Amino acid sequence: MNKTENTAMEMESLEHAAECLRTIAHPCRLRIIELLLRKERPVGELAEACAIPSHMASEHLRLLKDRGLLKNRREGRKVFYSVAEPMLANIIDCVGKKFICKE
Question: How are the residues of the chain apportioned to helix, strand and coil, as percentages rounded to the nearest 5?
Fold first, then answer.
């Protein structure tokens, strides 16, 4: 493998990372992740916490799940979401320290 091929693979990884960061770069999605890091929650509860309709919360959740950041399970008619990627805690911690908890 030459240096150019190695750089191309690294760029591919960086592109994937950038896409994941773009996915979470929305206030509602950050809030959803913050809530789900504490405990599993149903769609309706997440929608209420973000002050958005359930269908909008479902779309945010779908995007996060499609990126492999969240997982879900069904219990009767309710769908519960939880964090699938534990490293999200580090990102939320960093965001909180930089932009929310300024001292």
Answer: 65, 15, 20
Q: What is the mean pLDDT of residues 5-34?
A: 87
Total structural domains within the chain: 1
CATH of the domain at 56: 1.10.10.10
The pTM of the full predicted model, rounded to 2 decimals, is: 0.83
Residue range of the domain that includes 35: 3-100
Of residues 98 and 14, more confidence is placed in 14
Residues in CB range of 64: below 8 A, 6 or more apart: 23, 24, 29, 32, 33, 70
